[in-house]
């Protein structure tokens, strides 16, 4: 699914055994952590109080192998927990996710106080492995080589009442030379359309009004089912679900981006005018070295078609600077493509070696200082373009879905924040009437910054929604019962753009 972001899930609770999950990486990992929470709560655990910082009966690290120095960060955190574990009888530590799939036995060798190591294909085994480690009093390492059950069949503890991730596939069939994800997540496996739609309908029945279809390469969906137009058909089917207001997806691959998908986006009212499509480089020679099966002309041609069909679409991308062998001419081709594409925003990454990837062994690795200098030039250009594109929004009237936790300064400025249909962040004046996350407000944009829009005037209209009702019900229940409620379907807050970082991105702009 963007950054690398670190998230620690915890809520206040009075109860028996507690757990804490620390998540690193992309949307896939965030969604997997929802499932891990659901599994642990079904097994009788409750989340540790917020800010517990490792003071829980079970601490789970859901790791990422794409991050630079991901292993150093993991072992540093594990080291800090070692003395606490010696003074807390019965405490258990588990490590899962991509780094666990990759390093396997190494984790217990370096950190023998770890109780459980599990991979990306068998997250459903976590409660069993914890119990087995407790009974046998020895570390349990179980790494499945292929998917045991589609993750969406697992119980899931959702963190939001109004916007949800919905997985449509797992794994990836691409062989990008900078990416280790296919080796850790496996080949693409598609979920049956009926199962996807049934999950979405159940979410909507609970009050969800926005879903994001999630996969390493969403528009390759259907290759496992023998239907090349399966993804566009899925988008159109989402348009027929009553009560579903917003549909997004991440991330597509330019190779598989076909005209039928563009038509479905344009002709399905609840599919939002937003597209995140990783470019990675604008140089044909670098794209060839990356094993990206398209070239600059093909990529820009897709952008042109999308804008012709959806004039107000906001298009974002991922770009890697300093890939092995990148010359100044190659970099200038990337700068040219950025100028031509005029992305609303770009997630920019400085290339760094990833052990186990072909690119790590390539000749002509670029010196760090050269990569840094090019990176700063790219960021400056994209900041300028983002600001210019956002200025075009001034004077427009937009429907904004109110979000929770999007505006860090909202309390000080007496504003609220939310997302426009194209996913731009909008801060707006707090109206006199009560507005809840999930509700929709109509505002006029008065100011633009490179990374957000501002509506300083009075809110034009407030539409209270079933999603807002669901948020209010969830909040009231949480106040009465701090442990929260296991609802059994995947859900997370409004998917947000992830910050730029010094790592290459996988299919979900991690």
TrEMBL record:
CDD domains: Radical_SAM
Binding site for [4Fe-4S] cluster 1: 26, 64, 98
Gene3D superfamilies the UniProt entry points to: Methylthiotransferase, N-terminal domain (3.40.50.12160), tm_1862 like domain (3.80.30.20)
EC supergroup of this enzyme: transferase
Named cofactor requirement(s): [4Fe-4S] cluster
Positions that bind [4Fe-4S] cluster 2: 172, 176, 179
Major site of localization recorded for this protein: cytoplasm
Catalytic activity: N(6)-dimethylallyladenosine(37) in tRNA + (sulfur carrier)-SH + AH2 + 2 S-adenosyl-L-methionine = 2-methylsulfanyl-N(6)-dimethylallyladenosine(37) in tRNA + (sulfur carrier)-H + 5'-deoxyadenosine + L-methionine + A + S-adenosyl-L-homocysteine + 2 H(+)
Cofactor binding, note field: Binds 2 [4Fe-4S] clusters. One cluster is coordinated with 3 cysteines and an exchangeable S-adenosyl-L-methionine.
EC annotation from Swiss-Prot or TrEMBL: 2.8.4.3
Keywords: 4Fe-4S, Cytoplasm, Iron, Iron-sulfur, Metal-binding, S-adenosyl-L-methionine, Transferase, tRNA processing
GO molecular function: tRNA-2-methylthio-N(6)-dimethylallyladenosine(37) synthase activity
Cellular location(s): Cytoplasm
Pfam families, per database record: Radical_SAM, UPF0004
Domain of life: Bacteria
Chain ranges of the Radical SAM core domain: 158-389
Domain TRAM residues, every copy: 391-459
Entry-linked PANTHER family: CDK5 REGULATORY SUBUNIT-ASSOCIATED PROTEIN 1, MITOCHONDRIAL TRNA METHYLTHIOTRANSFERASE CDK5RAP1
Family as reported in the entry's similarity comment: Belongs to the methylthiotransferase family. MiaB subfamily.
Purpose: Catalyzes the methylthiolation of N6-(dimethylallyl)adenosine (i(6)A), leading to the formation of 2-methylthio-N6-(dimethylallyl)adenosine (ms(2)i(6)A) at position 37 in tRNAs that read codons beginning with uridine.
Quaternary assembly: Monomer.
This protein's name: tRNA-2-methylthio-N(6)-dimethylallyladenosine synthase
Gene this protein is translated from: miaB
């Amino acid at each position: 699914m963007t950054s690398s972001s670190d998230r620690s899930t915890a809520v206040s609770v009075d109860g028996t055994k507690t757990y804490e999950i620390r998540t690193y990486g992309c949307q896939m990992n965030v969604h997997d952590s929802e499932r891990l929470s659901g599994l642990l709560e079904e097994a009788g655990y409750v989340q540790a109080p917020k800010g517990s910082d490792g003071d829980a009966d079970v601490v789970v690290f859901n790791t990422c192998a794409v991050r630079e120095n991901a292993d150093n960060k993991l072992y540093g955190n594990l080291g800090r927990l070692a003395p606490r574990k010696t003074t807390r009888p019965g405490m258990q530590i588990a490590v899962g996710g991509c780094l666990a799939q990759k390093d396997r036995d190494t984790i217990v060798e370096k950190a023998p106080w770890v109780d459980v190591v599990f991979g990306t294909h068998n997250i459903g085994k976590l409660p069993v492995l914890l119990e087995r480690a407790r009974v046998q009093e020895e570390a349990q390492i179980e790494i499945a080589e292929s998917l045991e059950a589609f993750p969406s069949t697992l119980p899931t503890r959702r963190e939001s009442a109004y916007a949800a991730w919905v997985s449509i596939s797992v794994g990836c069939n691409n062989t990008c030379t900078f990416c280790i994800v296919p080796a850790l997540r496996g080949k693409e496996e598609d979920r049956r359309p009926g199962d996807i739609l049934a999950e979405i309908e159940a979410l909507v029945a609970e009050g969800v009004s926005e879903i994001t279809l999630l996969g390493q390469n969403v528009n390759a969906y259907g290759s496992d089912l023998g239907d090349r137009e399966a993804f566009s058909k899925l988008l159109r089917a989402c348009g027929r679900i009553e009560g579903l207001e917003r549909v997004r997806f991440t991330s597509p691959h330019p190779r598989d981006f076909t005209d039928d998908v563009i038509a479905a986006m344009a002709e399905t009212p609840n599919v939002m005018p937003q597209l995140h499509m990783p470019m990675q480089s604008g140089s044909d020679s670098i794209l060839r070295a990356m094993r990206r099966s398209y070239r600059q002309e093909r990529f820009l041609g897709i952008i042109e078609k999308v804008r012709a069909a959806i004039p107000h679409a906001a298009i974002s991308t991922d770009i890697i600077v300093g890939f092995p062998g990148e010359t100044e001419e190659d970099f200038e081709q990337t700068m040219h493509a950025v100028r031509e594409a005029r992305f609303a925003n770009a997630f920019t990454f400085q290339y760094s070696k990833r052990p186990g990837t072909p690119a790590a062994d390539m000749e002509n690795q670029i010196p760090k200082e050269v990569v840094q200098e090019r990176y700063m030039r790219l960021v400056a250009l994209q900041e300028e373009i983002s600001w210019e594109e956002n200025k075009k929004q001034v004077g427009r009237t937009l429907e904004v879905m109110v979000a929770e936790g999007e505006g860090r300064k909202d309390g000080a400025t007496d504003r609220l924040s939310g997302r426009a249909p194209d996913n731009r962040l909008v801060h707006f004046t707090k109206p006199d009437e009560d507005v809840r996350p999930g509700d929709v407000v109509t505002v006029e944009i008065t100011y633009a910054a490179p990374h957000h829009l501002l509506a300083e005037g009075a809110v034009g209209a407030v539409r209270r929604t079933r999603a807002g009702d669901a948020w209010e019900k969830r909040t009231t229940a949480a106040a009465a019962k701090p442990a929260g409620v296991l609802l059994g379907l995947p859900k997370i807050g409004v998917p947000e753009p992830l910050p730029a970082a010094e790592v290459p991105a996988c299919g979900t702009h991690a």
